[in-house]
Amino acid sequence: MKWFTEYWTDNVKFSIRIKKLVYTKETKFQKLEIYDSYEFGRFLTLDGYMMVNEKDEFIYHEMIVHVPMNVKPNVKNVLVIGGGDGGTVRELLRYNDLESIDMVEIDEEVVRACQEFLPLIAHKLNDSKVNLIFADGIEYVATTEKSYDLIIVDSTDPIGPGASLYKNQFYKDCYRILTEDGILVNQHESPYFDDTRSEMKKINKKLRAIFPLATVYQAFIPTYPSGHWLFGFASKKFTPDYRGNTDLLAKLKLRYYNQEVHKGSFALPNYVKEELR
Ligand code: SAM
Q: How far from chain centre, in Å, is Cα 210?
C-alpha cells in the first residue's frame, strides 16, 4: 500500500493513499510530482507540498477569484502571479467582460505538466485572453509599466521560489501597479498551526502598512494544513462587500462560492481576529 505524506508540523502528518506516481521532475526551481490517488484524484506537489488536487481545488480557486471579482465591478485587466496549475485562470475566464490576464509563473515546467496530466484544472491556459509570462513575479512587478485592476498572488508557501512573493518590496510594487481602486488577493496561510500562523501575521502586518484596507477571508480546504485556510484581501478603495451581478453568478453554477459565503468568509473567529490585531 503506497501513501503520500505531508508533514503539517513536526507532530502532525497528513497522508493520502496513492494509486501511483504519474510524473516526476526535478525542475530548475523545485521538485514537481503528480500522483493519482483513491480519494482526491490526481494531485500536484511541489517540494513535497500539496498544491492542487482534482477533488478540492474548486474551493481554493473559486475563493481566490470570485471574491475579488464580486467586490469590484468591471475588472478588465488581471495579473496572476504563480498559478501554474491554471485553476485561477479557468475561474477568471468565466467573466466574459474581462479583457486580459497576464500570468507570471516562474516555472514553465509546472504549466506544461499540468496541461498534460491535470487538464481539468489547466485546460484554459491556452485561451487567447491569457498571456503567459515565464519569469519571477518579484522582478515582473518591479519593472512592468502596465497597470492592473486586480492582482491575484496564487503562490507556493513562503519558502523556496515563493519566498520573494511575501516581501515588503513585492507588496509595494503591487500597490504601485494597481489602478486607483485596485485590489490584491493572495494566499495567506492558515491561522491554526504555529508556523503558518506566524506567516499569516507577518503577511497581514506588511499589507496593512501599505494598503488602506488589508484583511483576510477564509475557506475550508480539506488538503491544506488544518483545513482552515486564509486569503488576503488588500484594497486601495473598496471594502470587501459583495457588489456582484447576482443573475450572472447564478448562471456560473459555482460549487462553493455564493453571496452568503462571500459575506461569511470575512466573519473571522475570535482567535484569528486577536492574532491579527
Ligand atoms: N494553490 C497553491 C497552494 O497554495 O498550494 C498554489 C498553486 S500554484 C501551483 C503556485 C505556483 O507559484 C507554482 O507553480 C510556482 O512555480 C509559482 N511560483 C513560486 N514562486 C514564484 C515566483 N517567485 N514568481 C512566480 N511564480 C512563482
A: 20
Mean pLDDT of 5-34: 97
Look up residue 179 and give its DSSP letter. Answer: E
Residue showing cell 456582484: 244
The pTM of this model reads 0.98
Atom of ligand 1 nearest to the CA of 137: 24
Share of the chain above pLDDT 90, in %: 97
Q: Are residues 73 and 198 in the same domain?
A: yes
pLDDT at 1: 76
**Beta 2-9 vs 12-26: how paired, if at all?**
antiparallel
Q: How many domains in the chain?
A: 2
Q: Which residues approach ligand 1 with their CB closer than 6 A?
A: 46, 51-52, 60, 81-85, 104-107, 110, 136-138, 154-156, 161-162, 164-165, 187
> What's the gap in Å between 89 CA and the centre of ligand 1?
13
Per-residue pLDDT, averaged over 26-40, amounts to: 98
